[in-house]
């Protein structure tokens, strides 16, 4: 065989192999980038949300989205549909920052008509520089450029882990179970009140740090990663809520000298969002029935799924809705008093 012919045959075989790999990835499509799962039940895991969310945002049928960190992962889309209307999917990002959430809104608004965004606003997500992310995300899955999907087609983790995992769950997929169950982690055991109290030193209330830097970070993230979406999509209702962390979480911030910074951030964000006509702002931190019932919590901030369901009902009923600046100040005053009362 001549060298030329050998090169041609080798190139042809490599091309056929590459085509076979691409075809396999497109047909199985473990992250549903091109279509919903055809012959297996998808497993949506928190560790691969940056991949899975791209597929959910592109391939699911929806008109409403739930955005947030791990405290929104136990939200059940069908429960939110029953309470608020619409058809929901979750685009949560465990430990995500404001830019991570912005990227979820980017792809949702680009690919669908979105009538409602339910957004869990965690202060820590607004407490870093506005270009920071939880981790490097696979942006090639979020755009419409087919050519850079080569990074998906020949991705070692996709070929050696994601596709075998998908094929291990062969069967008729249940789309509704997948939609309601994705990222759900409701803990089987809870530490109880004593377990939570052990996480916080309530012996001394130290002097609180200057909130200036924290407020500047919150302002940057507000201006770059949230308000642009609110203002560009006046047809969309943004139901934004402050999650009901346990009261002990705020005591921990006080014990660490950060309470003033957290409350200043919260005041800034609320004041800005109250001025937007398509924003509904809820402060579930003011639900004493939840935040002082430490039996509902897995740790200082993570609560059980019945609380997520109850929040949907509260949103529908307008409970804990923040309507004006005076209410913001009263809520902050009440929270500060409740926290300080935990210290001797």
Walkthrough of the structure:
With 344 residues, the chain is α/β, with parallel strands linked by helices. 49% of the residues lie in helices and 7% in strands. It has 14 helices and 6 strands. The protein has helices at 3-28, 49-59, 77-84, 98-111, 150-153, 156-167, 175-181, 192-197, 212-232, 247-255, 259-274, 288-291, 305-317, 325-340; strands spanning 64-67, 88-90, 116-120, 237-242, 279-283, 321-322. It has a 6-stranded mixed β-sheet, sandwiched between helices. Helix 2 packs parallel to helix 4 (98-111). The radius of gyration is 23 Å and the shape is elongated. The protein starts with a helix and ends with a helix.
Which helices and strands occur, and which strands form pairs?
Layout: H1 3-28, H2 49-59, E1 64-67, H3 77-84, E2 88-90, H4 98-111, E3 116-120, H5 150-153, H6 156-167, H7 175-181, H8 192-197, H9 212-232, E4 237-242, H10 247-255, H11 259-274, E5 279-283, H12 288-291, H13 305-317, E6 321-322, H14 325-340
Parallel strand pairs: 1-2, 1-3, 3-4, 4-5
Antiparallel strand pairs: 5-6
Helix pairs in contact: 2-4, 3-13, 4-9, 9-11, 10-14, 11-14
